[in-house]
Amino acid sequence: MDFDPPACVDLHIHTSASDGTYSPPEILKLALSLQLGAIAITDHDTLDGSREALAAGIPQEMGFITGVEISAERPSFFPGKGSCHILGYRVNLDDPNLNQTLERLQNARKDRNPRILERLQSLGFDLTMDEIHQAAGPKGQIGRPHFAQVMLSKGYVTSFNAAFDDYLATGKPAYVDKYRVACPRAIELIRAAGGIPVLAHPALLGTPDGRLEDSAVRALKDMGLIGIEAYYTEHTTAQQEHYLDLARKHGLLVTGGSDFHGKFKPRTELGRGRGTLQIPIDLYHALNNYA
Fold first, then answer.
1. What is the CATH number of domain 103-168?
2. Low-confidence residues of the chain: pLDDT under 70
3. What is the pTM of this model?
4. Which letter, b or e, does each residue of 255-272 get, where b requires 16 or more Cβ atoms within 10 Å of its Cβ?
5. 3-state SS, residue 43
């Protein structure tokens, strides 16, 4: 299938403000070179990526939406452990309540990092926090990808993914849980900040075949959810169609993104996922014009 850059967008991008390897200005430059019609920067639990992009200047020929990806608690109707991620688009970057909650989430990440390090050291890995800080960079928010990067650079694992699969993922020996905001509260905060809450990558929630029950979607909509990320790098064609059907059935907006992290996900390209992702620019217009 041919790729048509001017008609495509990417609304799920991470930068060095959280756990990506490209700075926001570098993302803007790369997106422009790929002729993407619009982008959204959605860093984990921080608005700094959006702020830095706006400060750098958005190219006139490319649309831009502010964004964030909030780590929320899984509602009871989703199985397993870990986060339920809620994307927030078009948020007011200066909203005090949203920023206060994001600061608490960032502090929760900081608090667990020494415990992750202790677990890795107890497993025999010669790692220091200075090395992890260097991997994150001066502005980066330290997270598990930075531990994985250092483990790979020192030859302790054969790949970045292996560090997660064997040690850092939920339930693995070096995993440490963290504070998450309740899902209804995350949605409420986004809406109160003038934003649009969207369920991120639903296929990663661990439901059978990655499908969502109507009852779960209704419950999320009752919480205030406005959209669902149907187009996503790891969604199969069948899953994508399932989410599109759910969006139509429940009157939700549709969004899509690559979940680009740069070198941390080398197989995932900006705007194209693993090579075939195509996110229509109409989704950007619908998101941008929603009232």
1. 1.10.150.650
2. 1-6, 139
3. 0.89
4. bbbbbbbbebbeebbbbb
5. coil
